[in-house]
Request: fold
Amino acid sequence: MPEAIDFQSYLCAIRQHYAYWWEKYAVTDVQGRERLKAPEKPASPFDFGLMVQTVTQDGARQEKPEAPQEKPQEKIERFPVLKGLRKYAFDEKTRQLLLVGRPGSGKSTALARLLLEESTRIQLTSRSILNNPVGAGSPIGLEAADNLNKPALPHEQPLSDIGARFQIQHSDTIPVLVELRYWQTSLDDLMLAAFRRHGLELSATELDRLLTANRLLVLMDGVNELPSEEARSQLATFRHKYSRVPAIFTTRDLSLGGDIGIEKKLEMQPLTEPQMRDFVRAYLPEQGEAMLRQLQGRLREFGQTPLLLWMLCEVVQQSPKAQLPNNLGGIFQVFARSYEESSVRKHEVAALKGDVRPLSDRRLWCKALKHLASVMMCGEERVDLRVVIRRGEAERQLEKLFHEEPFPPKASRDCLDDLLKYHLLQLRTGDEIEFRHQLIQEYYVAEALLLRLRDLSDGELKREYLNYLKWTEPLALMLALVGDEAQAVRVVRLALEVDWMLGARLAGEVKREFQEQTVGMVSVLDVPTWLKVRLWEEGRSDFAVPELVRAIEDEDYFVCESAVKALGKLGSEAAIPGLLRALEYENSFVLRRNAARVLGKLSSDFAVPGLLRALEDRNFLCAAGHGDFAEQLADPLRTHRALIGDIEPVGRLLRHLVCRKFHDLDRCDRLVIHLDLALRVDFQPACGNPDVALVPRISSIACVGSKLIHPHSAATSSHSFN
Reply:
């Protein structure tokens, strides 16, 4: 590596830029122990504990396999998001990794956190190497950095102190975050700009030398936001040329742009209902319980991504007594209006204080946002969109919009200044403007499209909108706002004529009172059953649940398995009876295992009895292994008050936890007998207390009891239960 390149100031600049993250987010490891966090401060409610899981080839497959018979499946692994990213990005066998997730699921947040943590790790380990030499070039991980002299947390130590005392090692991999949404000329220019943003000037030659030497950890955010085919071609060339460079790419659903040839994929997992409830209670200490009661079964529908859950909490915080929306589009509508009204209140307060008043008529703001969002849907090619717009172009567009105002040029400039001043838009660079999140931009596009919907002919709607991938999210948001059933059904009908998957997706996006008809349009398609299952899954509507439950009984194994997976993605309690029947399906262990996983994820007390019966099936229990059922039962046992006082479920769960280590059911039976008295004494006082964390306490007792019976094996395995 060229000696002239000094990464010290670059890493310090990253740490300074993201310094607030150390206050806002608590970083947790796989056991949930907080790390690199000030001990005096409470855990932040913004730490969702996001998870990822590997995407199997079967999971990404769109068509039915030629051989429907059951066969061993690729193992699905789950990790905390940063642990999963590190595992595969630094794995010699993979190196390149694709992180997939729904809009607002935390993909960009994950890359930013990884950028910060890796920058901080290099500083801490390099400083420790100077203080405690361990050999030149010795790799030191994050855990080692925590233990070497217990260095001060990054937000607790002056930047100048760290910058003066650390030395970059040749083995260190320097992280760089490349936001593909800001593509203008070439990938090289975008990467150089990413370094320049944090004060490091590199030449194209130096960048190539660093990449060739595998010295960079490249974090490329937003593959689906690449503006053109030329950009996608350059990205493919980069992947081929620097195939050994650790690189993580993010994208929305794989249907939007494909997997760009990357074999290893991780998928952001939706928040579980306990995670959602914990966040709501922490974010809204006074209003949280009332909000949860009002949502009831809709929490899982609205809150599966961190962004949407935060928006929902913001709506409640701004208007505690307001009725919550019935669909996703309604959430965006209420949030946008609430945000606009909040800005108006700031104006009023400013006027009372004698501060500078807003320059423009605030009634123009929403109109301007819709227009700019629509303009940005037009990129260089018809298939492209933009997420940034130059200020000059934005002013010209608003000048056309405000042509009836007394002074259109002044009205456009003043309106744009106010939108920026009150954070409805934000500056990316000196002359580039963007919305605060792409989902917000898509919402305003949806609002603008809603105004034009009645005037669009069937041909125009299919040709100009349904035919382009970039319009999928705005169309979905718009349909949630359409109050005319005939118009909603028309859009879904036309979408099914263009693309079955698109039509199925939109069938589940219309208002709930219209979904029986739109999902029915999908159900009557003349297509094979396995494809209908895939379409019902894409729609994510509760009205598809009866059809999917019936599909579990299909004679084709592939249809049965696909139906179970689809029910898991829908997350509806209406699926529980059918899944319980699948749990007793003797001809397929894989089907039973998948049904158990889905039932566990539902975290419903209606599912617990069936799962507990499965614990009594010795053959199934041994085959499942690795504590799948124990993990699935943890949340229901902790969450549902009625079960906590029942000692039998606790005993069965304990039996399985111990079996995870010893794999000997008779030995586990003896252990449970020895622990029976301890269980009753320890857990009876917990009856009726929904806040007792049962599983850690059971695990602790299991460790103690196993020492009584098998002291040597238990002594070496106690960490397995924690």
Summary: The CA atoms of residues 595 and 696 lie 25 Å apart. The chain has three domains: 9-55+76-268, 273-439, 605-722.
